[in-house]
Amino acid sequence: MKFKTKELQELTEMWLKDRQITINGNTNSQVIKFVEEFGETALGIVTGDKAEVKDGLGDMAVVMTAICGLIIRDTPELTKERNITVLDVFNEKDYRDLPVVAPSIQALYLVASLGKLCGFLARGKNIEAFNTLNDNFENIAQLAYHTGSNINESWNIAYNEIKDRQGFLNEDGIFIKQSDLDEGKA
After folding, report:
1. Cα 121–chain centre separation
2. pTM for the whole thing?
3. Per-residue pLDDT for 81 more than 70?
4. Would you give the DSSP letter of residue 19?
5. Is-contact 142 97, C-beta < 8 A?
6. 3-state secondary structure of 123
7. Can you say how many angstroms the Cα of residue 162 is from the centroid of all Cα atoms in its chain?
8. What burial class does residue 109 get, using C-beta atoms within 10 Å of its C-beta: 0-12 exposed, 13-18 middle, 19+ buried?
9. What pLDDT band is residue 129 in, cutting at 50, 70 and 90?
10. 101: which DSSP letter?
């Protein structure tokens, strides 16, 4: 099923809550998961595997949604003062007017924005970290554009892959897929 971006944000947020990721998880484990997904996406770019790139971009959108939800959970000022939700962070734009850049260059922009996010999180500056989330979502969306896709298509692929996924959150805040347990991978 194909969803619009706002619907994907809502569905992803619900999926994350249902699996306790944004309730009992932590930003550190989600940043590690994001880096894993970025690595898979980068490998897809290097090898020319467009399906891997699309899947990885969608997975990064899912994980960035988790990071956003966790920062909101851990920063009461965001909800008390500004009534912020995950839906307030990312608004997809039309990227067709952007100058064309190599995907590897756009990936570096994403690394830079992720670095800012991580730096603020490491120093306990959640509001500043939250303020970098839009840049991170934008860079994921722009990377999708520069690899011949779009964030909505990629996010749909990822969401449709995970929507029925079951598992549990381990003591480190990492979601372990039931299928990995069944196959002896976890």
Report:
1. 16
2. 0.91
3. no
4. T
5. no
6. coil
7. 13
8. middle
9. very high
10. -
